[in-house]
Design goal:
By secondary structure, the chain is mainly beta. About 0% of the residues lie in helices and about 70% in strands. It has strands spanning about 1-5, 5, 10-25, 30-45, 50-65, 70-80, 95-105. Strands 1, 2, 3, 4, 5, 6 and 7 form a seven-stranded antiparallel beta sheet that branches. The protein is elongated, with a radius of gyration of 17 Å. The two termini are about 20 Å apart.
Length: about 110
């Protein structure tokens, strides 16, 4: 996924790609628990600043509700952590959590 907005004379570009393995366990007729793990690469660049590139590990856990055979609702928590050394301007290890609510439509 690439993102490249332009602000005045500055241009910001962000690219992210990854691969995950996912497992699902049915809990009840319409509920399922799922987990995922994977790796990702990223690249961020902005005019006038240094480029930032790296790799992340990703682990996630979620709950899925099947509205019907083609439409599912999901809530998920993901933890992303950089590989190797990471220098943060905020004194953190660079890890972050992502919480999401989504839908899956099967064709």
């Amino acid at each position: 996924i690439a993102f490249a907005p332009k602000f005045g004379n500055s241009r910001f570009t962000s690219t992210h790609a990854g691969i995950d393995l996912t497992a699902r366990v049915n809990l009840l007729k319409r509920f399922a628990l799922f987990g995922s793990a994977g790796i990702a690469t990223y690249s961020h660049a902005e005019t006038g600043y240094s480029n930032v590139n790296g790799k992340l590990t990703r682990i996630g856990l979620g709950l899925q509700y099947d509205l019907n055979t083609r439409l599912n609702l999901r809530v998920e928590m993901e933890r992303l952590r950089p590989f190797g050394s990471f220098n943060s301007a905020f004194g953190t290890d660079g890890s972050f959590d992502n919480y999401s609510l989504g839908a899956v439509f099967k064709f």
